[in-house]
Each structure stands twice: as structure tokens, then as C-alpha cells.
Amino acid sequence: MQKKVACSFPDEVLEHVFSFIQSDKDRNAVSMVCKSWYEIERWCRRKIFIGNCYAVSPRMVIRRFPKVRSIELKGKPHFADFNLVPDGWGGYVLPWIAEMAGAYPWLEEIRLKRMVVTDECLELIAKSFKNFKVLVLFSCEGFSTDGLAAIAASCMNLRELDLRDSDVDDLGGHWLSHFPETYTSLVSLNSSCLGSDEVSLSALERLVGRCTNLRTLRLNRAVPLDKIANILGRAPQLVDFGTGTYGADLQSDVFSSLAGAFSSCKELRSLSGFWDVVPAYLPAIYPVCSRLTSLNLSYVTIQSPDLVKLLRHCPSLQRLLVLDYIEDSGLEALSSSCKELQELRVFPSDPFGEEPNVSLTEQGLVSVCLACPKLQSVLYFCRRMSNVALVTIAQNCPNLTRFRLCIIEPRTADFLTLEPLDVGFGAIVEHCKDLRRLSLSGLLTDRVFEYIGRYAKKLEMLSVAFAGESDLGLHHVLSGCESLRKLEIRDCPFGDKALLANAAKLETMRSLWMSSCAVSFGACKLLGQKMPRLNVEVIDESGPPDSRPDSCPVDKLYIYRSVAGPRFDMPPFVWTMEEDSALQLNTIGNPIGSEWEHNMKGIQGLRAQMPFVLYLAELSNTSQW
Amino acid sequence: MEVGLKMGFEETELRLGLPGGGDGGEVVRKRGFSETVDLKLKLSSKQGSSGIDPNEEKMTGLTKEKNLLLSATDPAKPPAKAQVVGWPPVRSFRKNILATATQKSSSDESGGEKAAFVKVSMDGAPYLRKVDLRMYTSYHQLSDALAKMFSSFTIGNCGSQGVKDFMNESKLMDLLNSSDYVPTYEDKDGDWMLVGDVPWEMFVESCKRLRIMKGTEAIGLAPKAVEKCKKRG
Asked: Which residues touch A74 (CB under 8 Å, ≥6 apart)?
């Protein structure tokens, strides 16, 4: 009956209906209804999200979706942010760009996260996509400002260039002058991560002046404070502004033109930057503070009283990033001034110091949670915590969706009772029913994982460090967390049992990272053999893992599901556990013989014969990975 | 058994040479591999820590080395005094910015350890690495870490004989002429120096980036290193 309905509409009508369906999940569902819907849908899908660039190959994506205009790719595992993933691991975007250059000449948007992007890639983008509009390089690396110059020179329709947190080889600010004088389409520019002292101020000012649609401008540290007024004067329509250096000798004329420039920015809602702040210049932003919804003060190294003075002017604030200089007293003040607060991130000013350098404890977080009813997202670094505090937070903030707590010293117990913090985190997962992301710290036993497995049904991402006592902990998480997509674990005593017992679970997740745990090489091999749709990669810089007994633990392990098979761009310190690896490597403890070979062939045969429907499911699921 | 494996591996590791004395105006002199620990001792004793038996230090120096190698895979025990990699989970760009901020503000001395990330390149290797020099407290620790990172490239390229020759003044030029690897760094003045010619702390303060060069390329640096040592001494 469904078939009849489908045939009675011309394809164009269906396509038009589908164009109202934007979310990947809905699109995937649509594509599964029947073969003709699958066909129609795949020809009109314009936007692709690939959460793990190795889960699928460029060719497979292009084959299925021939008319894509926007692509988002993620590369390295999250722990790469903290130097746990050695350089050269992978995440190269060049193969993607190269294939798309031919297949998607009308590609408009590329968004990349934690990928290696070279100047060659940028030049290829500039050359290949005539209508290119959006380039977002989030925490990427491998390119220089020469590559940016190529983009600036060629992409006439560029609207957005966002280099958020990327590691760029900044050869000086001349790349900005590569935007032609006729170019006026810029809407968003974020070059705040550029590290050179040189910047071409005149090119910047001219660019800002002629791009009348500019809404977001985040400058880098090289732009001095006395230039801000001039820049803002040319772009009073800005919604999101990031200063460069915000410090200089106090001069009243500089101050007044700065204050004047800020007051004419009636649309300004977000401020960031503020390197090298001189507190006397902060009042210049007071004219815009009442309308501010987002404030990033995470580079502002001023003391709590000055921070509080500023924050009292910001009653509409929804998002605040700040250093722990704010202290408990400052957070208390924040909680009374900023009732609209939804997101709070408190970073450590001295993460490696032995002793606390500021008076910031669990009390600060508790006071915000008690007084800000809309709080949803927390990232908090501190040096002590208690179960009582966590329970209070959980009970008063049931709407938390993201909770990341980092108690700086590993395995720190409840400072009041000296007990583990199991009960506290247990309360978080029990009360915050919509919790999607959780990072644990402090002294934790297997019990906390029991709570997580039991209650955290919507949890999608879990980060664990220096916690747990046995495989039971890992088992609770893998068997209980139904929505789990990403799990990253370091320095925990989790071994083979839980991993092997829950192998099937791994195919329902995007990825699993385990480093400095107790997973043996033999278990990795077994997993690689038994699970053909998982890539099991062992990262070990001290030499080939098969030069040691199978029972030896591996240094780092990264497992992810993939329909593309093992990747071939691995550096020498990454080994993939393939299906037939047992036959090649040392055979200590491994059953060898005709029965094994028979099993191997069975697995491989299955893969070759994978039913068409299952194959469709694989490909359609890539978008939500 | 495991130690045996590691010992064999050690022989092929990249080792940092410690030419030139630094303060005493000492130039590159004849020195065996085991005596590199001696040199470290001499430098630190000049900086004030006294009363250490050189022989004992030699032993413990080598044992510490082994412990570092072994404890690298022991999850429960972070290396003594050095930091745990990637903990607390703070992004590099946040670490470095705070470092410069605290330097500018009040005089908090040795208490806070600020990160000192430098890029490490090796001639012939296809990609760069980054290390945080604050993670280490001696040239030995750094040497171990670098060896691990680049082991896949250096195995067989830098035998222990090569290292001994490096210590030996008369054979230094021979070594630099060969294809063995030599660690060098760019200092604050923009000069390229041989690693090891200044006290460790001074090195950490002044090192901007590291480059593990082929010996043949480093040949021009030896005289410069000697010059700078003489100036400092």
C-alpha cells in the first residue's frame, strides 16, 4: 500500500516535501521507507554530517549522495585536545577534498573539527568550488596563513571564515590583503587563534569597512587596543566581537573613543578576546553590557572584585567563560546578577600548581546552581568537592544537559567525609534526566558506574579518568547507557572482560578510547577478528605490540565503527587489528588450525553477502554517527 | 626479560649529547656514555645542591631512566616530579597564555609550573611533534621521550657507539660528518644550538623549538656552541 502512495506522486513533489526535512535523523528515516524514497532522498540531500571521518570513505559518500552542498567532518578523538593522541595519528582531510573537488563542484560549506588541513587542501578548496561560502576549521592544524591567502584571493562568495582554536602557522597578517577590494560578502571572521605579532591593520580596517554584512568579528592578540575604536566604527552592526589585546597605558582619549565606539554597537550580544587586560579599560564596554548574552573572559587575568564589577552590568548574560580568579565570592555575586545564566565554564589559572592559588571551591558552583534556574551546561575546574555539594547541585539543577567537573588532583576524595564521590555523581545522573554529556573526576569506585549505567539513559558522551576498581565498572556503562555514542577513558583499571563481553555494544557507538588501562593486546586482536565492522587500532609508541606477549596491556586503544574497513594512512605507531591478523602475528595462546580458518572465512563471507537492506542501514546511519 | 628487551632498545635510542661544560668554560671533552650522568651532576652541584656521591648518582641516574621507561606503561604511577600527560585536561592554547600572564604579574616563583610547549621536528620524519619541556626535569628525561617519539625512525640510525663518539672531542667532527642524528634547538636569540650545552633550566627558558638534525647538517653548530659557552662561562 505504501508503494502505491509513493508512485502516485511525481518525484518532484516528493523532493519538494523532503526539502522541508532538515535533520539527519529524519532524512535517514525517510530514506528507509522504500527504494524509490531512498533514491529520491539521496539525490536531494544537501547536507552531510560525518562524526568520524574514518567511519566511511569519501567515495562511498559521493556515490550515495551526489549533490551535496555542505559537509561536516570530524577527525581525531577528543583526547587529542590534551596531547594524548600523538602527532601524525591521522585525520587528514586532503583525500576528502580531492574527491569532492571532482564530485561536488557546487560545494558551499566545509566544516572540520580536529583534522589535519594543509595549505594544499586550502588551495584546492579555493580552486575547486566556485560558490564556496563557509569554511570552519575547529581545532584543526597543519596549515599556514598562506593557505588562508589562497582562500581569500579566490572565494568571491565567501561568507564565513572561522579558524576557531586551530593551530595555524601564522606568517604575518598579509593574508588579509589577499581579499580583493571588490570583495564584500564577509559575514563572519574568526582569526583569534593566529599567533603572530604582525597583522595588516590597514587591510583589516578596509575589509571591515566594505563588508557591510559583517556580523561576527573575532580579532587576534596582535591587534592593539587603540585600533578597536576605528574597527568598531566601521562595523557598528556587529553582533559578536572579539577584541585583540585589551591592555595599554591608560589614556583618556583612547578610553573615550573606545567607549563611544562600543556604545554605537547596538546589536552587540557577544564579547570575547580581552588578552592582557588592563582593568581601567573595562568600563569602556559598560554601554553594551546590559544586552550581552555571551561573555568570554577566559584570558582575563584580573582579580575577583574587578570581575564582579563588570558582571554586575550584565543581567542578560546566558553564557560565561571565566578563570578561577573569580573565586567563590565572585560566583556568589554572579548568581545574584545573572539570572539568565545557561552555561558556565570556569578554567584554572594555575593548573599545575601544587597549592591552590585562588579561593575557589565547590561552594562557588553550588551558589550558581542554587540561584540560576536556567543553568544547563557546566565546565568547572576546582581542587575539592563533596558528595553533599554534588547532591545539592543535582537537586537544584535537574535541567543540566552537560556536566563536566575536573577536580585537579586525580582520585581526590570527598573533602568532608574522605569517601569516594560515587554518591554525588550518582545524584547527578539520577536527577538530571536529560544529561547528554558527563566528565567525572575525583575518587570513584565501581559504584559510580553502576549509577551511571542505571540512570544515565540519555547520556551520549562520557569521559573517565583515574576512576573505578574493576571491569565491572566498564561493564555497567557499556551495558546500561543506551544512548552512549562516545566513551573516553584514561588511567582506569579496566581490562579485557568488560570489553569483550560488550563487543556488540561498540557497534552502536561512534567510538571508544582507552589509554593507560589494562586491556591486553590479545583482547584487541580478538576484538578485531570477531568484529569486522569495528576498526580496532592500537597506538603504541614504544614498539610493535606483537613483540611482547599477548597478555601485555596496550598503551592506547581506539575503537570505532566503520563501513570503510581499516584505514591505510596510519603512522608507524598505530596498528590495526584485522580479521586475519591472528594468522600473521605470533600465536601464543591463540587457537590455530582449520577450525579457526573456517571461522575466519565465515566472517568474511558474511561481510561480502551483507543483505542489501543492512547495507543501506549502514550508509544511512553514517550521517548520525 | 622485559628489561632485557628495553636494554636492547636503549642502545639504538637517540641520545642527547652533553658537549661543553657551561659555566666552567669547559669545552667538549672526552666522556663515556655513563659519564653523561656525571655531567648533569656537576651542573646541578654548581647550582647549589651538594653532598651527592657521584658514583651513587650515576647508579640512580641509570635506574631512574629504567623506571621512567617501565613506569610509562604503569597506569597508577605518574613519573615522579614530572606531570601526567594531558592532566588536568586543559587545552594547550590556554596553558601557554596563562604562562605569559603569570610571568607578567606578580612574582610567584617556582610554585606554579608553566607549560613550555615547543615543536620538535626531525629531519626525514613526515610530521612534527610537540613536547612540553616542563614535563621533564633533565636532559635524560627529554632524551627518553624524544627517543620514544621518533623511535620508528631512529632505530638503527644512532648506535651507542655514535653517542660515545659524540662525547669525544676528537671524534665529534667525525660524528657530525656521518649520517647520525644530532639534537639541536633554536633559542630566544634565534640561534641554532646543540642541545645540552647549558644547564637544564636555562635550556627550558630559552628553547623555542627543537630540531633533530642529521649530523652532517649540524656541523656548523659545534663552533657556535663552543663560542656561546665561552661567553657564558
From this structure: A50, A51, A52, A53, A112, A113, A114, A115
The pTM is what?
A: 0.76
DSSP element (H, E) containing A145 = helix A145-154
Q: B129: which chain A residues are within 8 Å (Cβ-Cβ)? A: 86-88
Cα B109 to chain centroid distance, Å, stands at 23
What's at A459, amino acid-wise?
L
State how far the Cα of A396 lies from the Cα of A589, in Å rounded to an integer. Answer: 54
C-alpha cell read off for A556: 592506547
Residues 6+ away with beta carbon under 8 Å from A597? A583
Chain A residues touching B98 at Cβ < 8 A: 301, 323, 349-351
Q: Are A185 and A156 in contact, with CB atoms under 8 Å apart?
A: yes
Strand partners, B47: none
With CA atoms as reference, report the closest residue to A276 among A248, A238, A314.
A248
Cα–Cα distances (Å) from A62 to A39, A69, A110, A269, A594, in that order, read 14, 11, 15, 39, 40
Cis peptide before B88 (omega within 30 of 0): yes
Please give the full DSSP string across A533-565, using - where no structure is assigned.
TEEEEEE-TTS-GGGS-TTSBPSEEEEEE-SS-
Reported as a single tens digit per residue, the pLDDT across B192-209 is: 888 888 888 888 888 888
For A395, phi then psi, to 5°, come to -70, -30
Q: Which residue does chain A place closest to B76, by CA atoms?
A: A491
d(CA A462, CA A481): 10
| Residue A570 Cα, gap to closest chain B Cα (Å) | 12
Q: How many Cβ atoms sit within 10 Å of the Cβ of residue A503?
A: 17
Helical packing angle, B54-71 and B2-11, nearest 10°: 110
Q: In chain A, what residues touch B73 (CB-CB under 8 Å)?
A: 516, 542, 553, 555
CB pair distance less than 8 Å for B73 and A553: yes
**Average pLDDT for consecutive 10-residue bins of chain A (625 residues)?**
61 91 92 93 95 97 97 98 94 97 97 97 97 98 95 97 95 90 97 91 96 97 95 97 94 95 97 94 96 96 94 97 96 96 96 88 97 97 97 97 97 97 98 98 98 98 97 97 98 96 96 97 95 95 89 96 94 86 40 38 39 40 40
Let me know how long chain A is.
Answer: 625
B134 touches chain A (CB under 8 A): yes
Residue that is written with C-alpha cell 554601554 in the block: A287
CA distance to A158, B85, B122, B211, per residue, from B119 (Å): 32, 16, 10, 8
Cα A283 to Cα A232, A244, A260, A280, A314: the distances in Å are: 16, 16, 11, 7, 12
Q: Choosing among B13, B70, B94, B136, which should be mutated to test the A contact, i.e. which has the most A CBs within 10 A?
A: B94
Cell 621521550 appears where?
A: B145
Whole-angstrom Cα distance, residue A550 to residue A552? Answer: 5
Alpha-carbon distance A88 to nearest alpha carbon in chain B (angstroms): 6
Would you give the end-to-end CA distance of chain B in angstroms? Answer: 45
Q: Rounded to whole angstroms, how far apart are CA atoms B185 and B116? A: 14
Q: Does B102 touch chain A (CB under 8 A)?
A: yes
| Helices vs. strands in chain A: H and E counts, helices first | 25, 23
- Record: contact B2-A548, CB cut-off 8 A: yes
